[in-house]
Design goal:
The structure is a homodimer of 400-residue chains.
Chain A (H helix, E strand, L loop, with lengths): L2 H24 L4 H12 L11 H20 L3 H6 L1 H26 L4 H12 L3 H10 L6 H28 L6 H35 L5 H19 L4 H12 L15 H29 L10 H24 L4 H10 L4 H13 L5 H29 L4
Helix pairs in contact in A: 1-2, 1-12, 2-12, 3-10, 3-11, 3-12, 5-6, 5-8, 5-13, 6-8, 6-15, 7-8, 8-9, 8-14, 9-10, 9-11, 10-11, 10-12, 13-14, 13-16, 14-16, 15-16
Chain lengths: 400, 400
């Protein structure tokens, strides 16, 4: 690809994302909806101006990882640990119920093969942490109890989702399912999630020392991005989702990082502030690329809007997808308004669901019709919750 | 390319660039040498760990354009206009003399064909504005009179270089040379250079207005990068080098932007400061990628170090390359120390020379031997001046 063509793509993406985000806020909608919509407009669904070329895809992936880094940066580890059990309940229920109901509907109601039904269930398990987090932070509720529960649950769901994807992938290429492999991954990921923030904290102390003595400007942006990319890469190498690495690095550098064992690793407020200040413009530049990319990946033209099967299929699965996530929220002990927000926040399937559906399509497990139906389910679960959450906060925000 | 592989490449590039830059400053060398050297070490010359894949190349190009944006941001337009004539003399002399001497040496001394000789001359004309600017700004001499003269001359050389490249390209594919086309490009580029900063200034006023009212964070990083990419794209569309667009956008947003015609477009110090603060981390993140990329593109293994022809050929051309740029500096009326710095600063051929040489190679005009010789000339002209400039400032800095 010629660099001037790439510049044109990138500038159209950045500009359209901004214009639609501004329009969305004027219309009282969440800004992330504007960015997703920008992708839908620019992509194959409508104008087909922008192809999701590799360099854009890679910058989008940097975007989501940096967004999770920022989320980590603003997370209070103590509070995350405190809400841990509730997150766990929400995540497990929101994983198992959509999987089971998706499978059952596919197998018994729509008479599909077990493998297809399993993939349908898998697609419904995902939670798009990116979209959820953006909506919460747009509404400034990321630090609230419900925000922390959702954050923890979405992270856990991502881990479970990746493991299921790996299992289904083995299954689909006929390699059989190895529970040994699956549990190995689980151990690795667990170890990563406990050890990575500590390791990142130690590295950040080295960066801080160099920051004090380096004569060349620009130490923080390059080394912090390096750190984030390293943990993203490491997470992937251990079988975990890459954005978990970004989150772990963010946690380690946050002002509220806390270690049960080592009180010596206390955080330096001033350094944490410098990191936040310098990383913010970089994060803000990359994240819209991600949301536009999600919109670009949704091809709404693939949906045959006249087919009664697709409408029946996708609306049934949509109900299952929503109900499956609702139950988890109502299993925990919280005021009903908090449960309501958690339930809504867990609904978006976003890019994770698309990855599942795409895997189903390329491995020829999903027919075009099933694929289109799944895309519709993913689109609706992704596009509706931001509106619903905003409305819910507007109406019941005083009870939270 | 898988995203985790890309993350690994990118983090190795960023980390190695930083480590080598820090080492370079400890050894009293300019930090840009460290970054170039990082590329040489990681690339085909030595370890061959990193391939210059497309996404890295595109990010490197964003890097050089953003660097030129930052240079523009710090440029005093009044002073640039004042040094205009001197820059013009330096640029024209530094363009014609290497072209003529390169051609003559190729044709008469080494008995090469006229076309090959013309390409050799063309390769010698380039001035790598990126490397020159980095060395000057590392030494904090960018705002000094010699810095402004060199900056103007390097920009003009870039325009002349691109025009020559276009002509040689037409020539090499046998299309004949159209002077009409060449003059059309010259008019376009001239118009661009006069009008682009004014247009960018007008757009920046719109951005400033939105900055005051937008409720979504991150307006400045996305819109300013969009603006820079747009002018880079526009510059290319009009036949000018892309980095000129970055420079024009930077000029327009600088605190010292000045218009002979419209005094109404005065700059707002506070807004200019905000732009600088938020763009700095982004520029600092992307620019090292560019310099590492230049190092990656240099394959020193292609040089047959035992061949007497190559040594004779490249050392002769090196002398011509250096002498050709020296003369221009001594045509202008400045203290001799200033002339000395200007002469040294104009020597690096860097990435522009490599583009010429690469065009010669792929169009089979350069044999492997000639190409290797040219790479050696480019490598030496690129790697030596930063050291020489630093030494020169250390020794004669008090006379400037």
């Amino acid at each position: 690809m010629e660099s001037h063509d790439f510049f044109l793509y990138l500038l159209i993406i950045l500009l359209t994302a901004r214009v639609f985000a501004e329009l969305a806020t004027r219309l009282q909608a969440p800004s992330v909806i504007g960015e997703l919509f920008a992708g839908v407009v620019l992509g194959p669904s409508l104008l087909d101006w922008i192809e999701p070329v590799e360099a854009i895809k890679l910058m989008a992936e940097i975007g989501i990882i940096l967004l999770l880094f920022e989320v980590g940066l603003e997370t209070d580890v103590k509070r995350l640990v405190r809400t841990g059990l509730k997150s766990f309940v929400v995540a497990i229920a929101g994983f198992i119920l959509p999987l089971v109901s998706g499978f059952s509907l596919g197998y018994w109601v729509f008479n599909l093969s077990p493998l297809v039904s399993l993939f349908i269930g898998g697609t419904l398990t995902a939670t798009s942490i990116g979209i959820t987090v953006r909506v919460l932070s747009d509404l400034k509720r990321q630090q609230a109890p419900e925000g922390q529960i959702v954050l923890g649950a979405a992270v856990l769901d991502d881990i479970l989702g990746v493991m299921l994807l790996a299992l289904l992938y083995e299954f689909s290429i006929g390699g059989g399912v190895s529970l040994l492999n699956a549990s190995k991954v689980l151990v690795f990921v667990g170890a990563f999630f406990v050890l990575a923030p500590v390791a990142a904290k130690l590295i950040s102390l080295i960066i801080k020392r160099f920051d004090a003595v380096s004569e060349i400007p620009g130490l923080l942006p390059t080394t912090i991005v390096t750190l984030v990319l390293f943990f993203a890469w490491l997470a992937h190498a251990l079988g975990a989702p890459e954005l978990l690495g970004g989150f772990a690095a963010g946690l380690a550098l946050s002002r509220r990082f806390f270690l049960p064992l080592g009180i010596a690793l206390h955080s330096d407020e001033c350094f944490a502030h410098r990191v936040e200040d310098q990383m913010k413009p970089i994060v803000q530049l990359f994240t819209p690329i991600f949301f536009v990319f999600v919109g670009l990946s949704l091809n709404l033209r693939q949906i045959n809007w006249d087919s009664t099967f697709i409408w029946g299929f996708s609306l049934t699965l949509l109900a299952a997808a929503i109900a499956g996530k609702l139950v988890g929220a109502f299993l925990i002990k919280e005021p009903w308004a908090v449960r309501g927000v958690i339930a809504l926040a867990m609904i978006p399937r976003g890019e994770v669901g698309l990855i599942f559906a795409e895997l189903g399509r390329v491995s020829k497990i999903f027919s075009n019709e099933i694929y289109a139906g799944m895309v519709m389910v993913i689109a609706l679960t992704t596009l509706l919750p931001p509106f619903l959450m905003k409305w819910f906060y507007g109406r019941y925000g005083d009870r939270l």
